[in-house]
Amino acid sequence: MAKRSSLSIRIVEGKNLPAKDITGSSDPYCIVKVDNESIIRTATVWKTLCPFWGEEYQVHLPPTFHMVAFYVMDEDALSRDDVIGKVCLTRDTLVTHPKGFSGWAHLTEVDPDEEVQGEIHLRLEVVPGTRACRLRCSVLEARDLAPKDRNGTSDPFVRVRYNGRTQETSIVKKSCYPRWNETFEFELEEGATEALCVEAWDWDLVSRNDFLGKVVFNVQRLWVAQQEEGWFRLQPDQSKSRQKEGNLGSLQLEVRLRDEMVLPSGCYQALVQLLCREVKLGTQGPGQLIPLIEEMTSTECRQEVATNLLKLFLGQGLAKDFLDLLFQLELGRTSEANTLFRSNSLASKSMESFLKVAGMRYLHGVLGPIIDRIFEEKKYVELDPSKVEVKDVGCSGLHRPQTEAEVLEQSAQTLRAHLGELLSALCRSVRACPAVVRATFRQLFQRVRERFPSAEHENVPFIAVTSFLCLRFFSPAIMAPKLFHLRERHADARTSRTLLLLAKAVQNVGNMDTPASRAKEAWMEPLQPTVHQGVTQLKDFITKLVDIEEKEEKCPHQASQYPGSRKGGGEELRQLSRHAGHLHGRRRQAPDCLPAVQVCERAEPVAVCSAEDLGCDKTRSRVTLQEWNDPLDHDLEAQLIYRHLLGMEAALREKHRELSAGTEAASMLTGCGEASEDPLAQLLQVLQDLQEAHSCSPVSSLPLEPNCLLELQT
């Protein structure tokens, strides 16, 4: 049995932040640290004291973590970014909220002496003597110390204090992983109550030394133990008075801790086989499990369930079959063509997830050059007359400021050029699109055309493809390119506006330029000729994409083609996965969209955070964001699906009673014998078996801190 921990994090918004700029405003962003290791950085929201982020992340971390901290920063172009405040949530706090912590939290002041990290290796002994015992403290080494110097390291030394005496180690230059191997002794009187304090410091030549953390020990406990050795987590200095809470503003957060006890692989075999059999049979089989799972899963949980199922079937080589089953189920219950795949259905969520693993490298090839050019040019672009700021543009002549009309026309030309370039790149990319993506889109196109064969619905198969390709993949990547690994940093305010307007134009093309898409924002009209031409180009692209002969695509999404699968191999998907994004970062909840999907002014970015963010180093503390290029953990995915099914067990049993009653009535009328055991009954039995396996397996609880009995609880 193995214990796995994860954090679901949503950074919603802030309010009443203090002004850090001379303009009376701030440019806030958030940094998330787990045990002082930075793993997340949100986008910057410019010129506001009430920022809105709406970014979500899934974080994997060791069960022994202690704290997650949210820092609100003010970005400055010419100087070091200002720290506004922070919110800290301990593991114990999160454990007391099994459904997750959700709400507003006051920001508190950030004290440098509290910003510590790392561990120190010590050996402590009580040595008997002729007259009195002696306390021997061996300072061996430290690891993962906070970098306090500009070169990204520190010059650490250790100060040991006991009973009024202080001794210090030598200084180790430029290291966060120093070794000392130095021993100090103190006279120890029986019954002494004085604490032993071991402090780590960063030595500075001209300024004061920086505090790196401390460990405080109860000598009486040590007297009983006589000898102890181990790694001890450095603690902050919390002796200073803190600024009153509330005057630094507040942060709205949603944080949920999940601890999973994962059983051995054999325990999940029956569950995996049952789900795989239904997917293989498709709609022709008697199974009702996938429709029932979708029916009984709340909207808030549907993205997570879609992710877990898709990853499970990826590992089993059945992702394409799973998606095809979902396509058929949604088409079977859809009567209006203009509502197809526009809701938060399991098909929509699963397909969106699939594109983020199989299509990320393709996305980079098509979008990358255009995004780079927009970032490099930094042109002022605005189409909405109510938002035009002529002063930001400068002069078009020697001394004559541009008029509003000239700004709008120049902006339209810039956006038409970007949109035209993007559409041309897309049209040239048919062969570059991964075979698994082409096969899945062809499958989707054919299913939709079979369901809506009339001439009046000739555009529906195209819109089904663009609803994923444009509206749920390309447009979010244009709005937030860093979150899709297209850029290393988030865009500034001017570039963000250009990207948002381009994303709106791409969505209009993806909506096939319907009247509804044009009516909401009439000021987008200058782009209409390019949008109209783009619809023709996009339809031609999709036609070619789905007409490639199937013999060229003998690379279905088999288990051997996904990294981490049991069978290995599969170079194409292995290459794709190296460029894959993080699936769990997503919108809070996509609205039930109308036929014409719009990008709102306060659009929530699709939060897909890069593993290359500062501090996201797997070799140090194993705290990582969920990545698609990580090997699949089949047992963990099966456990997550089991846990979700267990939550709906009562509803599943009620559904089984209803179905059983109907089956018995039909058998009596027809005179047929008892039907064979149905899939739902088998699923309920599997859930019962897994419950028993969990209850019988020993739960190995890991201590939060090695040798924690020696620490003095202050």
UniProtKB/TrEMBL annotation:
Coiled-coil region(s): none
CDD domains referenced in this protein's UniProt entry, alphabetically: C2A_Rasal1_RasA4 (cd04054), C2B_RasA1_RasA4 (cd04025), RasGAP_RASA4 (cd05395)
Residues in Ras-GAP domain copies: 301-511
GO MF, one annotated term: GTPase activator activity
InterPro entries from the UniProt entry: C2_dom (IPR000008), C2_domain_sf (IPR035892), Ras_GTPase (IPR039360), RasGAP_CS (IPR023152), RasGAP_dom (IPR001936), Rho_GTPase_activation_prot (IPR008936)
Domain C2 span(s) in chain numbering: 1-105, 116-232
Keyword Zinc-finger listed: yes
SUPFAM superfamilies, per database record: C2 domain (Calcium/lipid-binding domain, CaLB), GTPase activation domain, GAP
PROSITE patterns in the cross-refs: C2, RAS_GTPASE_ACTIV_1, RAS_GTPASE_ACTIV_2
Keyword Metal-binding: yes
Keywords: GTPase activation, Metal-binding, Repeat, Zinc, Zinc-finger
Protein name stated in the entry: Ras GTPase-activating protein 4B isoform X3
Biological source species: Pteropus vampyrus
